[in-house]
Amino acid sequence: MMPCNCRSEYEKMLLENFKEVAPDATDHRVSLLGYAFIFGSNTLDENGCMQIEMTANHPLKKGGFKSKKQTSNLLFKFCPFCSKPYKEGA
Fold it and tell me: In the chain, what is the greatest distance between 2 CA atoms, to the nearest angstrom?
């Protein structure tokens, strides 16, 4: 359970704005994608998250370098909009 309703409020505001800037379009939809479900022992929580992309040139055995990319996810402990903690005591 989210400690706030920022996600739904921002999706609503973005949808209203989208309808204003694209009035000739139909079936407008907006969804904030940076959220993940977190499974606990007896809970299912939703936290904000952001994908991280890390790139570096790694040395090759035969000489030279090759660019390698890695991705990971960063989970927020606090709502990125209102700063309320996702869990008590965070």
Answer: 58
Instruction: Let me know if 10 is exposed, middle or buried by CB neighbors in 10 A (0-12, 13-18, 19+).
Output: middle
Cα 49 from chain centre: 4
> 39 forms bridges with which residues in the sheet?
44
Q: What pTM does this model have?
A: 0.69
Report the DSSP pairing between strands 65-75 and 35-39.
Answer: unpaired
26-72 residue pLDDT tens: 999 999 988 888 888 888 888 899 999 999 999 999 999 999 999 99
Residue 1 corresponds to which amino acid? M
Give, for 74, the enclosing helix (H) or strand (E): strand 65-75
CB contact set of 69 (below 8 Å; sequence gap of 6+): 53, 54, 55
Q: The tokens of 5 are what? A: 């309703």
Please choose, from the candidates 6, 73, 75, the residue with its C-alpha nearest in 3D space to the C-alpha of residue 47. Answer: 75
CA dist., res. 44 & res. 38, Å (int)? 6
